[in-house]
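Lab meeting minutes (informal)
Scribe: AK
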Amino acid sequence: MSRELLIAEIDKLYEIHELSLEAESNVERFLDLLDIGEIRAAERDHTSPTGWRVNEWVKKGILLAFRIGKLVKVEDACSSQFFDKHTFPIKDISAENQIRVVPGGTAIRRGAYLSPGVVIMPPSYVNVGAYVGEGTMLDSHTLVGSCAQIGRKAHISAGTQIGGVLEPVGAMPIIIEDEVMVGGNCGIYEGTIVKRRAVIGAGCVITGSTPVYDLVRETVHRKEKGKPLMIPEGAVVVPGSRTLAGDFAAKNKLSVYTPVIVKYRDEKTDAATVLEQAIR
């Protein structure tokens, strides 16, 4: 079945309440293509202001797979008992995939794609629809949520959550572009796009509704109508705060958290964020 026919079939099935065995067969083919990275929840689009395009039909296919899924016992190498939809077993990975998954509680769901050279430290979880580019490191206690897109040679540090955006189907997923460094204990949510070579400092929490104050360019980056929050290319973001307006806030010296861009990437930043190739 061609890509065009598969798109038409997924769109048609998405509107049908009662699904047939033939529908399940088409969804299985869809999941196989998602699993090997042939199709993605979002793709680069140089005609778009964001540089990306959401593939709504891919999200519809994932939701269809949940609808047709039956609860079954999931076998685990550690002999624990798990129960999940039969359409989303643990992803089958072999040494030929050239992905380094260190033992210790990591799970990768079917329908997630990991490129050769990816390194995953335990315990971590990669959900359906996620895409992780070549040479990227996912450190311990990281979550890569549904449909999140992570580029090449990125580093997602320990304790970080890259949120999932499965619904609504037209919503932009979280996108982390090539060579981005995300520090420990960060959270990136609500369709935020982190552009190439940006650095997100440890402890930053960035959501689609978070204003990001740019000290270098003296501007504020916000989510706008039809356009998600975008962290500029090469930006170095750290946790900060801003004073709240009003007499009560002034009297009580109140402020709220906000991310702040303090500089843009330079040689000194590169030296501080370089990844040790020996561990790969």
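Next up, CB showed the second protein from the same session:
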Amino acid sequence: MADGIAVDPRDDGAEQESLADEHRLIAHTRRRLVLWSGVSTLVVLLVLGGALYAVVANTLYNASVTKLDSVVNPVVASLTGQPSPDGSAGTDAPDSQFGLQTGRGSVWLYAFDASGNQVQLNRQPAPALAGMPVDGSLAAASAAADGRDIREVNITVGTSVFPARLMTQRFVYRVDGQTYFLQALQDRSVEVETLQSLVTVLLVGGGLVVVVSVLFGYVYARRALVPIRQSFEAQRGALRRQREFAADASHELRTPLTVIRSSLEHLARHPDAAVGQQREALDDIDAEVAHLTALVDDLLLLARSDSGAVALDRMPLDLGDIAFEAAGALGRMAADRGVHVEVDPEPTMLDGDPGRLRQLVTILVDNAIRHSPRNGQVSVIVRSGNGVASVEVDDQGPGLREQDMPHVFDRFWRAPGAPSGGTGLGLAIAKWIVDRHGGRIGVANRPGGGAAFRVELPVPAPEPPSPPDRGRAGGEAPPASSALLG
């Protein structure tokens, strides 16, 4: 029964291709976000892990060198007769200072001459282990710079190979004045195991962190792309509505244009006929021109409303006056159709656009008159309470089918069997007016038959009482009892 014509969404090839492009773009963006999350986390972990490894390795190295110094320096001091770095005078080195220093990180201490031959100084015992480095080249290398050389080597003892740190120190023996070399070999097995364990922890822990980061990145990317996906959907819906709007508008415009063309062709075929004989064709042209004018006006209003170019001219007004005037303007139309229009307004003050609210009531009453049977009645009731102003327009027409109610306010939707003559946009414009005023509009079937449209608009907070003789906006107040039009 309502104005408008519903259009089911039409998915053409272009829309399907656009939808596929959007999915590809979103998927590509999501992959890039996930990749960025994983790569950035990996880079941070590599930097932190490398720094941690360097700090630990340097700490272990310094500890190892400190231990080697603690073994080598006292012996060199005793053999040279010079004070050791700690300030004590050198003495004969006890036997325990040569050979194997027991414990994890064990140290082996040996003396060599310039040719690389192992020598005994201060009752140095024979080597406790075979295969120890007796390397003149190492001793010669240590003669450079400050006479000290530290390097990492692999030592084979029997069938075992273990990592070691070798310190070679040049010194002049106080007894014969000859140059000798003291070599300290420290087991690095604990140091290497510690660093390997650290690398394992960094690799496993870092891998888990990267995996978790990728998962969180995936979840975050999905959530972050929701607004973009919604924007695409809104844009796609807007484009679809524009296509549907253009197609339906073309359909609505075609009918009156066809009638006008047919009438003009009729006039062209009878150029000599009197005006009175052409009255029917002229009346058809006049009616269709009026229909086209109304349709174009409605199309322009909706197009401007979609672009936000229509502004409301708000001012204090009495909705009862607005409804009374709008219904009164349709009195002749109601009389021609044999329909009685009853207006029951109450003083209802609110802030709104009087022109748009008058257009709202006109659309609802016009719609009710068109769908009312002859001798039927249309009721317009204006009330105020609970912070809202309401306008209810009831008719005695056939009412609405349940499946049609969701489409009543759609553009160009028409119920089956709807009377001709409307633009198909009236109720869509009515809903736009209500929405712009911050209200709501709905429709329901009346128990006794017919449809009831109800509009609720917010009203401002109550003001202090005004003088009792306050005039009503818009002219004379209607009678307190119901007013009958038509």
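CB comment: The first strand starts at residue 99 and ends at 101.
No objections, moving on.
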